Amino acid sequence: MDLAFTPQEQAFRAEIRDWVRANLPSDIAHKVHNALRLSRDDLQRWAKILGKKGWLGHAWPKEFGGPGWNAVQKHLFEEECALAGAPRVVPFGPVMVAPVIMAFGNKAQQERFLPGIASGEVWWSQGYSEPGSGSDLASLKTRAERRGDKYIVNGQKTWTTLGQYGEWIFCLVRTSNEGKPQTGISFLLIDMKSPGVSVRPIKLLDGECEVNEVWFDNVEVPAENLIGEENQGWTYAKHLLSHERTNIADVNRAKRELERLKRIAKAEGVWDDSRLRDQIALLEVDIVALEMLVLRVLSAEKSGKQSLDIAGLLKIRGSEIQQRYTELMMLAAGPYSLPFIFEAMEAGWQGNFPGGALGNAPLAATYFNMRKTTIYGGSNEVQRNIVAQTVLG
Amino acid sequence: MDFDFSDDQAALRDAVQKWVEKGYGFERRRATVAAGGFDRAAYGELAELGLAGLYVSEDHGGLGMGPVEAMVVMEELGRGIVLEPLGQTFVTSGVIGAYAPAELQAAWLPRIASGEALVVLAQQERGARYRLDRVSATAKASGQGHTLSGHKNLVPAADQADAFVVPAQLNGKTALFLVEAKAAGVKTTGHLTQDGSRAGDLVLTDAPAQLITTDGQTALEHAVDIGIAAACAEAVGVMDKTLAITAEYLNTRKQFGVTIASFQALRHRVADMKMQLELARSMSYYASLKLNAPTGERRAALARAKVQLGQSMRFVGQQAVQLHGGIGVTDEYIVSHYFKKLTQLEMTFGDTLHHLGEVSARMQDTAGVFA
C-alpha cells in the first residue's frame, strides 16, 4: 500500500501539465475558472487541440489510435486538464459512442466514424431518453422499421444534451416488440441532417438551452448504420455504461471548484465566519474521501488484484458533492447571488453588477444547473437500488 | 499509488481473523464485561500472536511492522468488538520507540512486545476536553529523575495497566513521562465505559517518573495520531461487521409475508450505510498511509480522517439499530453492542466536531492537491 504516485506516474503528470499549460487557450481557461458561458466554438476548439495531439480519445486503446494509457494515467490526465481549467470533453463521441463502435461496429464503420470522433471534427449527440422513458429506459418507443436496405425511424428523443450542435446522433430504437422490452432494441447511428429530423432546444431553470427534444419523422437511415446485430442494442448500451467508470465522480473538478469556493468566501468577507467555514471544511473532507474512493477503484483497475463493489457509489457521492459546492458558493455570496443578469455570465461583459462583485454573476445559475447531476445518468435513487443489490442481493 | 495488501499483510489479517472468530466469541466478551471489561488472558493471547510487539523493532523483540499492518489488525479486532486495548499498545510502543532514550526503550519495549507489560496513554484531564495543549499535571526534577503530580481521567484499563505514558508540565512546557503502576504515589480506580471496556482514573502524588522526551507536545500529538489511525481502522471493522449483521437480518426477518429486505425504504438506507462504510474505509487507509508524513501534513490528514469516520460511525451505528427494529435495542442481541462500540469510538481521540474544528483551522489553499 502506498498513497504516493510512482516516480513514473509523477513524471507523466508533469508532462501532461506542461502540455496542457502550453496548449489550453487562456480565454477558455478564464471562462472555466469563473463559470462563464462556454460557446460551441470554445468546446470544439479545445476538442480539436486535444484531437490533434491524439488525446481527445485519451481512453482509447492504441490499436484505434489512442495513447493506450492505464487507469491511473487516464486519471492523471483528467486531473491535470480539470485543474488547469480545461472544459470537460463533450463525451458523446469520444467517451460514449466510440467504445461501442470499437467493440461492436464492423471495420467499415470503424474506418468511417472513428477518425471524425478522434479529431473532434464531428459533433455527436446521444439519443437515449424519451418523454416516457427516463429511469426505465428499456420502455423506449422510437421505432425503426426495416425496409430493404434502410430503416425508417419514427419517434421522439428528449434531454439530448447540446443536441442543437449535433451532426450525428447514436440512438436506441425499437426494432421488435417480441419478448422482454430489453430484447427488441437496436443501436443506430443517424445523420442529423437527414430529412425528417428536427431539434427543439429546451430552456432550463438556469435560462440556458443545454438539452433538446429531437423528433424523427419517417427518417430514412441506411441499414449499414446499424451497430452489431439487430435487437442487441441493449447489450451494447450496457457496455457503454461500463465505460463511464471513475470519471463520473468528477473529483478533479470538485478539487478545482473547492479552491474557487475559498476565493469567493474570502472576497465576500465570510472566510472567517466559522459557521460557513466549517461547512467548507466538511466539504473538503468529503472531497478528500471521494478522492480516496476513486483512487481505490483506480488501483484495483490497475493491478487487477482485487474486485471492488464500490464503483456504483462514485456517481452518488460525486453528484452530491457537485451540488454541495455550487450551493456553498451561492451561500457565500449571500444576497449578491440574487441578481440574475443573463449577459453578465458572458466573458467580457462591461455592465455594472450590483455590489460590484462580477464573479458572483454565474453562482445562482450554476447552482440551478447542477440540480441535474443527481437526476441524469441513472438517478441517484436508481443508483441506490444498484448499491443495495450488492449488499443485500 | 497502490491500495493492494501484500501477501504478508493478508496472512496477518487471516491470523487475527481466526483468533477473533474462534477465540473471542460473544459469550466470552459478555463474561469479560460482567467481570469488569478487561481480560488479561485475552490480551495475553493477542501478545502471543505477536501483536503487542507490532510496532516494536525486531531488536527489542517485536515485529517491526508499520501503520498498514496495525490497520489490518485493528480492523479485525473491530469486527469482533474486542475489548482489550491493543490500540493503546500501538500508541505507547510507538511513542516510546520514537522518542524515548535508549535505556528506557531497552527496559520497556521487550516487555511490551511480550505482553508482560501493558502500557497505556494517560492523557485526559478535566477541562482539556479533546485539546492536547492543555496539560495541568506537573513534573519536577528529583535527584536523577522526576516526580509527577496530577489527575488523569478515562485512562484505558487504568487499574490493570503496568505503566502509563503521561504528559505533564515541566519548566513551562509539556514533557512526556513513563510512570510505573507500582510506584509510590500512584493510585488508580476502575469503571466501565459505554462499550463495556474498562477505564479509570490515575492520580499521581509526587510519583517517580522516567522522562521520555521534553518535547512532549510533539510526542503527544504523534501518540494521539497513532491512536486516531487505530481507532479509524477499528471502526471500519466494526462498521463492516455491523452492515453484514444488518444485511443478514433484513434477509431473514419477514413482515407482511415477505423478507423486509424487499422494501425499498430499507434498501436505500442500506445503500447509504454502504456509502458511509466505504468512505470511512477510504479515509482509514488515508489515515494510516499518512501516519509517517511530516507533522503538519500528518495532523491535517488524521483530523480529516476522524471527521469522516466520526460521521460514518454515527450513521452506520444508528441505522443498524433502526433497521433491526425492536430487537436492535435489546442487550441480548449483538447489534446494540456494535452500536455502542461505534458511539464510543466516535468520541475517542477527539470527536467529529473537535476534528472539524481542526480541519477548519488548518484549511488553506491546497491548489487542488490533497493526496
Classify the oligomer.
Answer: heterodimer
| Structural class based on helices, strands and sheet pairing of chain A | alpha+beta
- What CATH architecture of the largest domain in chain B do you see? Up-down Bundle
CATH topology of the largest domain in chain B: Butyryl-CoA Dehydrogenase, subunit A, domain 3
CATH superfamily of the largest domain in chain B: Butyryl-CoA Dehydrogenase, subunit A, domain 3
What is the 3D shape of chain B?
A: globular
Helix content of chain A: 40-55%
Rounded mean pLDDT of chain B is 97
Key features of this structure:
heterodimer; A: 393 residues; Butyryl-CoA Dehydrogenase, subunit A, domain 2; Butyryl-CoA Dehydrogenase, subunit A, domain 3; four-stranded antiparallel β-sheet; 12 helices; 8 strands; 13% strand; B: 371 residues; alpha+beta; eight-stranded mixed β-sheet
SSE topology:
The complex is a heterodimer of chains A (393) and B (371).
Chain A: H1 7-23, H2 26-33, H3 40-53, H4 71-84, H5 92-104, H6 107-119, E1 124-127, E2 143-147, E3 150-157, E4 168-174, E5 185-191, E6 197-202, E7 211-222, E8 226-227, H7 233-241, H8 251-267, H9 274-303, H10 311-333, H11 363-369, H12 380-392
Parallel strand pairs in A: 1-4
Antiparallel strand pairs in A: 2-3, 3-7, 4-5, 5-8, 6-7
Chain B: H1 7-23, H2 26-34, H3 40-48, H4 67-79, H5 86-99, H6 102-114, E1 119-121, E2 138-142, E3 145-156, E4 163-170, E5 173-180, E6 186-188, E7 191-192, E8 198-213, H7 216-252, E9 254-255, E10 258-259, H8 264-289, H9 295-324, H10 335-346, H11 352-362
Parallel strand pairs in B: 1-4
Antiparallel strand pairs in B: 2-3, 3-8, 4-5, 5-8, 6-8, 7-8, 9-10
Helix pairs in contact in B: 1-4, 4-7, 4-8, 5-6, 5-7, 7-8, 7-9, 7-10, 8-9, 9-10, 9-11
